[in-house]
Design a protein that fits this description.
Layout (H helix, E strand, L loop, with lengths): L23 H17 L4 E5 L6 H11 L6 E6 L2 H7 L7 E5 L12 E5 L7 H14 L11 E7 L5 E8 L2 E9 L16 H4 L7 H15 L8 H12 L9 H4 L3 E5 H4 L4
Parallel strand pairs: 1-2, 1-4, 2-3, 4-5
Antiparallel strand pairs: 5-6, 6-7, 7-8
């Protein structure tokens, strides 16, 4: 990461490519799994970090969060000043845009930081320090609360395939794979969207490689269920996968083309 003056935003400018609805799979997972935390907070603030050349993802995040937490506010944060200026006309009640980077220029600790397609241009060795910095800015855990959530991952240009890591103030918790099942040939096609912490680890001997191998095998074994649709085939495959992997979600999420696994099971071999 490029060294900067203390008063300057921390990070580097991304390509900024974005499309409407690109992050809908990630957003609906956040709403389902983190909505209760957002509802309990008197002033729940979410940050869309590195929203890109257009503000669509921040606008959409506000709408999706408010379906589960009506008091939610979103701050779009971008390191490129011209992108902030271009987004300002889209500000509204609950939505503002700020110039900044990994320092997260908001006065309070947010309950959510979403960083989608931001770290892909960084080196793998830089990821841990960025995670640590962002997790330190999250709202802390407390009585009846696990604290804020950092969701960091990658998706394709039109939002068909996503993989993201969810982290709390204490560090990484889970990895979620999400896909449009109608376009899926085999689950390991998601490998190209692994986040930076895992994408170079999809090689024999690494847990993420073994996981995708086993998911492919379960998908192949579930081929007879394709007669009932891709969704039923996926549900069957993930159900079989549970015998060997710590799958943390259930059929409600599987029906969405998702599977969430404990981070510890997929963490890189050091």
């Amino acid at each position: 990461m490029t060294a900067r003056a203390a008063s300057s935003p921390v990070g580097t400018v991304t390509r900024g490519t974005t499309n409407p609805n690109r992050l809908r799979r990630m957003d609906r997972w956040i709403a389902a799994t983190h909505g209760a935390e957002l509802r309990r907070a008197p002033d729940p603030v979410a940050v869309d970090l590195g929203y890109g050349a257009a503000p669509w993802t921040a606008v959409e995040l506000l709408g999706r969060l408010r379906t589960v937490a009506p008091r939610a506010r979103v701050v779009g944060v971008e390191i490129e000043p011209a992108r902030v200026a271009a987004a300002r006309p889209y500000e509204r009640d609950g939505l503002v845009f700020r110039h900044g980077g990994f320092e997260i220029p908001v006065p309070q600790r947010p309950l959510l930081i979403r960083a989608a397609n931001v770290l892909r241009q960084y080196e793998e060795a830089e990821v841990a320090a960025v995670w640590e910095r962002l997790c330190a800015r999250l709202a802390p855990a407390g009585a009846g609360s696990r604290g804020g959530l950092l969701v960091e991952g990658t998706c394709d240009e039109i939002g068909r395939r996503h993989v993201w890591v969810a982290l709390g103030p204490e560090g990484p918790r889970t990895v979620t794979f999400a896909t449009r099942l109608g376009s899926l040939e085999r689950p390991s096609d998601l490998a190209e969207r692994l986040p930076k912490a895992l994408i170079h680890r999809n090689v024999p001997g690494e847990p993420v490689h073994a996981f995708l191998r086993d998911l492919d095998r379960a998908w192949a074994a579930a081929a007879p269920y394709a007669a009932f649709g891709a969704r039923q085939r996926w549900i069957r495959a993930v159900r079989e996968l549970r015998a060997d992997w710590p799958v943390l979600d259930g059929p409600v999420r599987w029906r969405q083309g998702e599977v969430t696994v404990a981070w510890g099971a997929l963490a890189p071999v050091r």
